[in-house]
Amino acid sequence: MEQTKTTCLEVCVDSFASAMAALEGGADRLELCSCLLVGGLTPDVALLEQIRQRSDIPIRCLMRPRFGDFLYTPEEIQLMELQIPRLASAGANGFVIGCLTPEGRLDRRSMERLVNAAGGRGLTLHRAFDVSRDAAEALADAAGLGIDTVLTSGQAADCWTGRECLGKLLASGAPLEMMAGGGVNAGVIRKLRALYPLRTFHMSGKITLPSAMTFRREGVPMGLPGLDEFSIWQTSKDQVRAAAAALQEEIVC
Prior knowledge:
Structural class: alpha/beta
Largest sheet: 8 strands, parallel, barrel
CATH class: Alpha Beta
CATH architecture: Alpha-Beta Barrel
């Protein structure tokens, strides 16, 4: 069960090593996914089980079956419906969901199916919100669906750039927790909290580590062209620790 706390620092992780770094840094909650390189996809149940062997920290699992837009086929919706109970059985406290219509509105019918599959567990509307056509409409729809948290950059590339939209969302009085995400670090937390009484932030805190490979065959890409395949993305416990400390500082806005 997720504990109620005045503030919450959620760290998005896609590996066991990143999860352990986030824990050591003082994360309050994890968003578990796979393949952060493309913005995150649905995690493997085994990874969740592996983390659960080491910690009972609240974990919300991202439900995103593929890279790309948030307009899903019936089969993709069904896949997420099937995955949610399995992740719940493995220890997920909640889920991070979002579906859009071709016109850029929340796909309420599809999201209702995912909400029902979650069985009353915590629910975050992910950054499908940030590419929806109307923030106020999407916020109202999310509240009506029973979502408790909205992850948002303020419909901008990062949450500092989208700070004016964040302010409007906070002022709307919607019965939802606004979780600022996109470019979050200790400095951004301080700057945003000097403007608004934000309590919840989302970060990856990722750094690039060199591969331990001593033999490296170049010019044989396994994924995205131009990507350095001898670099490992991993959460930095130091960045998480700094952000957690910033979040505990007194609000001066």
